[in-house]
Structures are given as C-alpha cells and as structure tokens.
Write a structure and sequence with these properties.
The structure holds 2 protein chains of 2 kinds.
Chain A (H helix, E strand, L loop, with lengths): L1 H42 L5 H5 L12 H33 L3 H15 L2 H13 L7 H26 L2 H9 L4 H12 L1 H16 L3 H4 L19 H9 L4 H34 L1
Chain B lengths: L12 H14 L12 H38 L2 H4 L3 E2 L4 E2 L2 H32 L2 H16 L2 H27 L5 H5 L9 H25 L3 H9 L4 H12 L1 H17 L2 H6 L17 H8 L6 H29 L6
Antiparallel strand pairs in B: 1-2
Helix pairs in contact in B: 2-14, 4-8, 4-11, 4-13, 5-8, 6-8, 8-11, 9-10, 11-14, 13-14
The chains are: A mainly alpha, B mainly alpha.
C-alpha cells in the first residue's frame, strides 16, 4: 500500500516536471513571438521608400533614416575589415603557433574576457584612446570600437575551426615542400573558410545592433556625410534618441529602424547557422 | 575539395626530373629551405602581433579606466562605493545607488530566468519531438541574437505600459496600506522600475543560459542516463540526480556567464529602469545601474570630476564582471561561439 502511494507520488512529481519544462519552452518561444510581433506591427508598417531615401528629420517634418543606415554600414564595414584581419591572424596564431605556451593561454583567456566584456566599457576605452586626444567624436572611432567587439568573435571561431582541420592536411602541405606560412594560407585557411565566414557573420550580427559603444565615439549626425572623421549618424543611436523622444513621428522612425536592424541581424544569424551546419555535415 | 594543381609547372614529372638533376649539380651539401621560406617568420610575426593586439586592447581598457577614474577614486576614496549621493552640481559622487541597482537587477534577472532556461534546456533534450528540436533550438538562439536596443524599445513601449496597467496598479490598489507588500510595491505606476528592468534582462539572458545548459545536457553519455532509467527512475529523477550532478560544475559556469551578461547590459536597462541615483526603496521604485548611468550622463558630464566619477564607475563594473566571467570561464572552459 505504501509503495503504491510512493509510485503515485513519483509519477505525479514527474508529471509536474514535464509540465514545467513545456511551460518553460512555451515562455521562451512566447517572448520571441511577442517581440517579433511588435516589430512587425509597429516597425515593418513604418518602413516605406522615404526611410531609405531621406535623412533624419526635425520633428514634424517628413524624413527617413538614410544617413543613419549609410553611417552604420560604413562603420560596420570598416570594423569588419579590421576585425577579420586581426581576428583571423590572431586565431591562426592561437591554433598553429601558440600550442600550450603560457602566452598562448593568456591570450586565449584575454580573448574570452573581451568576448563577453560589457560593450559600454569598450566605448569608454575608445573615447579615451581616440575621441579625447583628437578633440572630437568621429565615425572612425565608432568603427574601432565595433572592431574591438567583433575581433574576439572572429579570433575564437578561427581558432576553433583551424584546430578541427586534420594534422594530415598540414603534413601534406609541408611534405609538398611548401613553407608553413603558405600551407596555412593556401590549404588550411581554404579548408576552414566556411567556419571563418561563419565567425565573421556572427561578429557582424553582433556589432550591427550595438549601441552603447557608439554613444561616446561616433555620437550622431543629423546629416548625410561620407566623412568618417566627423560625428557620424548610425542606426542604433538614432533609434535610442528617437525612441526616448516625445514625438510620434520620431518614435515611428525608431520602430522602423529597430525592425530593420532586428530582421537584418536575424537574417545574418540564420545564414551563419546554416553555413555552420553545412560545414559540420561535410 | 581543391581544384586541379595550378602551382609552378616544375611539378610535372618531366620538369621535376630536370629540376632534380639541376639541383644535384648545384645543390649545397645541406638540405635547402623551401622556396618562400623567408616569409615564414614574417607571417608568424604578423599572427603574433595580432594576438598581442588583443592583449593590448584589454590592458588598454583597464589602463584607461584606471587613469580616467583615478581623480574621482583619489578624492572620494572608499566612500565612492558606500555613499549614495550623486550630485554633479556640488561635485559629490557616491556610486552606491548604481552599484546596488546593478547587482539587484542582475540577480533578480537570474532568479527569473534560471528556472525557465532550465525548463527549456530539459525540454529540448528530453521531451521535444525530434522534428521540432532543431527549429526550437534555433529559435532560442535567435532570441539571444536580437540586439539589446530592440529589447529596450520593446520593454519601454510594450512591457512597461502593460505592466503598469495590469500588474502594478491592481497590486497597489489591493495591497493593504502599511503591509510588507505595500512597501515592496510602492512607486510611480509607470512601468519603468527595477522589476521591469529585471524582467527584460531575464528575457535577454534566458536564451544564453538555456543554450549552454542544453549543450551540457547533450554531452552526458547515453549509457549513464539509460542506466538510471533502467533502474526505474522517472525523468525528473534522472535529470535531477544523474544528469545535473554530472554537469554540475559547467552548469554553474553557464549561470555565471548569464550573470556576467546581465551585469554589463546597457541599452535594454537604460530604457526602462527609470534612472534615479538613490537606493531603490522597493521593487517598483526607479533605480539605475552602472551601465545605464554611464550611458545617460557621459556625454553631458558637467565637469572633469563628473567624467572621472563615471569612468571610475566603469572600473567598478569591469571589476565585477571580470570576476564573474573569470569564474565562469574557469568552470566552463573556453568559450564557444557557434
């Protein structure tokens, strides 16, 4: 009788647990759905041609986000150029040259710290490094701040995928008489290219929505400009300023911008994950 | 995987033979270094410099925070951490309010997110229909990819008004005056408070923790779980007494990683916490975090001491997150990005 009761109690406990897990999954997916729904209703509805062809307006007049979109793209492009250059080389060093050396371990740890360091602190650093000495906010400083956030991601993925390449590949290259540097560039990088590309895309997805480090580096600009030595308009800062403003039309633009960024980031993320999956399969 | 050989023509057999004959004529006694070998040290040097740049960046971050924050730390000393008066006009800066706000919101967020994240991870590993496992897993990861400013906007325009109308107001009406509950929920009913900020933070860290926990649960050898099932254990017993203890160390690391995220998060919190520098008196009171204070005030800082105090705040934030992240890494091992 007592054991019967115990069995019933254990089964009940298990049922409660199963329900708990289902509810947990439902909550997580529910939030994703709620956020996407808000973005679709409030954001996509506000996207029209003007968003891409006109600059950020004064309250009450018609306008778009052209300067902010262009500024963000320019800064992200420069940031990615820097981050991929440094990240791939640093990842290569960690995977091929560092081995188990103490310095290698230190750099690996430092990279992990940078990977999850609060982005606003990177902004403060670049402010001290580039804004204060040159007496001015600039798009270039913004790009450097973004690069500092992207580089650790690229470094980490590069190291991981290069370590996945079989040693036979390196031996084959060297046995053919090619110097190690050429073996790495021509054979290993090519074999690892999908993985490195994935890392680059993830890094891009990460920095394209970053706001905090841009607040004190790129600042903002009301006008369209190619000059990256001046304060440069960028989507995240515009969204931040406009969302907290009291004007309806500015808030609508902020939602449009948020939807643009969010869906672009989701899209890039999905591509990166598909790529990662493909390369794992082959 | 590779195209046909397109290198120098000397590798056709005939050319190779001629080359070999040539070389035996002129070869030095010792083996020759491969052609282009001079590039080897240059390439290695470039790689080394890049790796060192990362180290220099972190040193730079710490250095700039120390140097920039020194005037404030020197002037206020230890009281910078314990005083909650933050007054740019009289130039008295005590950071206790933001520091406490940061810790309270992060821990509340963790408390809210952890059970859900655990549920999601177990659901994905144990109960999810195989067909849905991947789509749901990807959806959770996508939730982690949404930029924080979008969370902030969503919190400000959707969550806060809903929260004020459907939770805060009814609770304030229902709570008997003077009771503990009434103290806990006093505040302006506009939805911008400590609790909503924590909820937004919880939504943000949930997918991180869930994804890492899921990966951990996947690493458990099937034989271990199967033997527990074979002994007649129910799923909850297998998870709680076999699976979790198996990954205990890493699981704590995963939670710390989530905590690190929450501590440093800026934009989402700045939108919704209400930005007041006093100690939060209740769950529904407005407050501030270190990151939100810096984001709000840095560009409008009135004097050198104000700027310095903000940078010193950044140093405090760095020290807190660094401790948490270092502990997480020590428990978890190196980070994974994909």
């Amino acid at each position: 009788m007592a054991s019967q009761l115990l069995i019933v109690r254990r089964k009940m406990g298990n049922a409660v647990f199963v329900v708990f897990c289902w509810v947990g999954a439902a909550i997580a997916l529910g939030f994703l759905a709620l956020i996407l729904w808000s973005l679709i209703v409030k954001g996509l509805g506000g996207i029209d041609l003007k968003v891409f062809t006109m600059d950020t307006p004064a309250p009450g007049s018609p306008g778009g986000l052209r300067n902010a979109i262009m500024g963000s793209l320019e800064m992200c492009a420069i940031a990615m150029l820097l981050a991929v250059t440094f990240g791939v080389l640093a990842g290569t060093w960690l995977a091929e040259y560092a081995g188990d050396s103490l310095y290698g371990k230190v750099v690996r740890f430092v990279n992990d710290v940078l990977l999850s360091a609060p982005s606003i602190l990177i902004g403060l650093f670049v402010y001290t490094l580039m804004v204060k000495p040159f007496h001015g906010f600039s798009g270039l400083a913004g790009a450097v701040a973004l690069a500092l956030l992207a580089a650790p991601v690229v470094t980490r993925t590069t190291e991981d995928v290069m370590k996945l390449q079989p040693p036979a590949l390196r031996e084959a290259g060297v046995a053919l008489g090619s110097p190690l540097a050429s073996t790495i560039r021509r054979i290993l990088w090519r074999a690892a290219s999908t993985g490195i590309l994935t890392g680059g895309l993830l890094a891009f997805a990460r920095i394209s929505g970053e706001t905090a480090p841009l607040l004190f580096t790129a600042l903002n600009n009301q006008f369209f400009s190619w000059n990256l030595t001046q304060p440069t308009a960028n989507l995240p800062t515009v969204i931040f300023n406009y969302a907290l403003s009291a004007y309806d039309d500015w808030q609508r633009l902020a939602w449009a911008g948020a939807a643009l960024i969010a869906f672009a980031v989701l899209f890039v993320n999905i591509i990166a994950r598909t790529l990662a999956r493909e390369s794992r399969r082959s | 995987m590779f195209g046909p050989y397109t290198g120098p023509a000397c590798f056709t057999p005939k050319a190779a033979m001629t080359l070999a004959i040539e070389q035996t004529k002129t070869a030095e006694p010792q083996a020759r270094k491969p052609r282009g070998g001079v590039l080897d040290p240059i390439f290695e040097g470039l790689c080394f410099i890049s790796a060192t740049t990362l180290l220099a960046a972190l040193v730079g971050v710490i250095g700039s925070l120390l140097v920039g924050g020194w005037p404030a730390l020197h002037k206020f000393g230890f009281s910078f951490l314990t005083v909650s008066e933050w007054n740019p006009v009289t130039e008295v800066f005590g950071a206790a309010g933001p520091i406490v706000g940061t810790i309270i919101t992060s821990i509340l967020a963790l408390v809210l997110a952890l059970p859900v994240a655990f549920g999601v991870a177990v659901f994905l590993v144990e109960f999810c229909p195989p067909l849905l496992r991947r789509p749901i897993g990807v959806a959770v990861e996508l939730l982690a990819g949404i930029p924080s400013i979008v969370y902030g906007m969503w919190g400000l325009f959707v969550l806060a008004p809903w929260f004020a109308l459907h939770i805060q107001l009814p609770l304030m009406v229902a709570a008997p005056p003077g009771s503990l509950l009434a103290n806990l929920i006093q505040g302006v009913p506009n939805g911008a408070n400590i609790l909503t900020a924590s909820i937004i933070l919880a939504i943000m860290v949930l997918p991180f923790i869930a994804a890492v926990l899921r990966d951990l649960l996947m690493t458990i050898p099937p034989a271990v779980r199967e033997s527990a099932y074979g002994l007649g254990a129910t799923t909850v017993e297998v998870i709680l007494s076999v699976s979790l203890p198996y990954v205990r160390r890493s699981a704590i690391g995963a939670v710390m990683l989530g905590l690190g995220r929450a501590l440093g998060e800026t934009m989402a919190v700045t939108f919704i916490i209400g930005n007041s520098h006093d100690f939060p008196k209740s769950l529904f009171d407005s407050g501030s975090t270190i990151a939100s204070t810096i984001a709000n005030e840095f560009n409008e800082a009135t004097g050198a001491m104000h700027t310095s105090a903000l940078i010193a705040l950044g140093l405090v934030l760095f020290l807190i997150t660094f401790t948490v992240l270092a502990a997480a890494r020590a428990l978890l091992g190196p980070a994974k990005t994909v």
